[in-house]
Amino acid sequence: MFENFFLGLHLPGSRYTTSPLYFPGSGAARAGGGLGGGAAWEAGLRRAPCGCQCVCPSLLHCLPPPLPLLPPPLPGSPQPPASRVAATSSDRNFMNKHQKPVLTGQRFKTRKRDEKEKFEPTVFRDTLVQGLNEAGDDLEAVAKFLDSTGSRLDYRRYADTLFDILVAGSMLAPGGTRIDDGDKTKMTNHCVFSANEDHETIRSYAQVFNKLIRRYKYLEKAFEDEMKKLLLFLKAFSETEQTKLAMLSGILLGSGTLPATILTSLFTDSLVKEGIAASFAVKLFKAWMAEKDANSVTSSLRKANLDKRLLELFPVNRQSVDHFAKYFTDAGLKELSDFLRVQQSLGTRKELQKELQERLSQECPIKEVVLYVKEEMKRNDLPETAVIGLLWTCIMNAVEWNKKEELVAEQALKHLKQYAPLLAVFSSQGQSELILLQKVQEYCYDNIHFMKAFQKIVVLFYKADVLSEEAILKWYKEAHVAKGKSVFLDQMKKFVEWLQNAEEESESEGEEN
């Protein structure tokens, strides 16, 4: 690699030599070239012809330190592994490096980012308890203390301890027992569990939590986790403490500080079996509905996917709509009872629609479909008004419709004529007929190829005794929906006039007779 690497020019009075520099292991050295060959080349490296000692300083940083020549291996001797040779070479190079001087008594300073702060929740507890006791029953002073103390105390690190003390007045062990129950100096009575059991007082404490979380936004998730934990610990709390916690949870749910997902902790088997879950839920929903209306509460339950899990608040042998309705109605929560009935009805309708769709796609006889639907109506207490819409949807989904507008009307009439007897069975009430008319109107508006077929479908149903004259006239005058109103009313104008004239003629004939 370093063969004939450098040729210096020796000028009088300079330190640079005109002799070529050869290094150990180079071809020139092996050939005996350079300054006389053999061992003489080493002397040439050290001294120039002028007698001065010279080596180009600009090359020193580029060249590795010289290695002594190794004797050639004996014939037949084993060759050392390449890795060992490389390691020996690197060790030799390492030993030739200059070691940096180290002062005696030098201290290595740990970087601040590498220092680990001790976890001392008891110190945090003592400071917090002292501040709460000094603030006393003045919740405005408590809120100001918590606001100002956040700059000195690590709320992020000790969030569990912070919320334990604000709710229970003490640090809580796993399971909900108080760690400092024997030492009153490490507890405070200025907390939720020690407050009066009335809605206004608990609402004042809820405002303290709201202010704290608005000021320190990073506590939001920690507070949610804390409330889930406290709901799991309900068995360790007294009935009064459970009531206060339920009221606090309901108020905070109403203000949006907490999400409805915290209620999943109530579905724990131990709480359900002992009846704690249902009792706590009633108190919580009462406080929630005191803040928000029933629609807001049920909407939050839907968003959290809890609307279909309310029955799980009761043991398996009591998970029925009737038991839930009676329990919550007796507690003054009829709105939730009605909501659950509607949700269960929707679930039943979805199952019914799925089964109907399958039977229609298999072209089951209409008589069998009628028997099946009547049995489901009786078993699930479904009204005819709920079934007629499902039937229409399933019948229209059972066919792949033509994309051409001029052909789809003929295809629709042929298909609906086949299933008109099925629709006639479940449209025996005037309200059912109006719902069917509205469903037909919405379908024809949403599927543009059916826009011109609306009047033909209505006439077909009139002739097949699916729709009565009274229902059509009422729909035309007042019961139609907004979708495509002007188009469909214009289509039906002549037919409605014919119906009205026929009605007048029949009335006049009746008077003559």
From TrEMBL:
PROSITE patterns, A to Z: W2
Residue ranges annotated for the W2 domain, each copy included: 342-509
Main location (coarse class): cytoplasm
Protein's cellular compartments: Cytoplasm
Matching SUPFAM superfamilies: ARM repeat
One record GO biological process: regulation of translational initiation
Alphabetical UniProt keywords: Cytoplasm, Translation regulation
Keyword set includes Cytoplasm: yes
UniProt GO cellular component terms: cytoplasm; membrane
SMART domains on file: eIF5C
Keyword Cytoplasm: yes
Annotated function: Translation initiation regulator which represses non-AUG initiated translation and repeat-associated non-AUG (RAN) initiated translation by acting as a competitive inhibitor of eukaryotic translation initiation factor 5 (EIF5) function. Increases the accuracy of translation initiation by impeding EIF5-dependent translation from non-AUG codons by competing with it for interaction with EIF2S2 within the 43S pre-initiation complex (PIC) in an EIF3C-binding dependent manner.
Family (UniProt): Belongs to the BZW family.
Protein name from the UniProt record: eIF5-mimic protein 1
Native source organism of the sequence: Bos mutus grunniens
Lineage: Eukaryota, Metazoa, Chordata, Craniata, Vertebrata
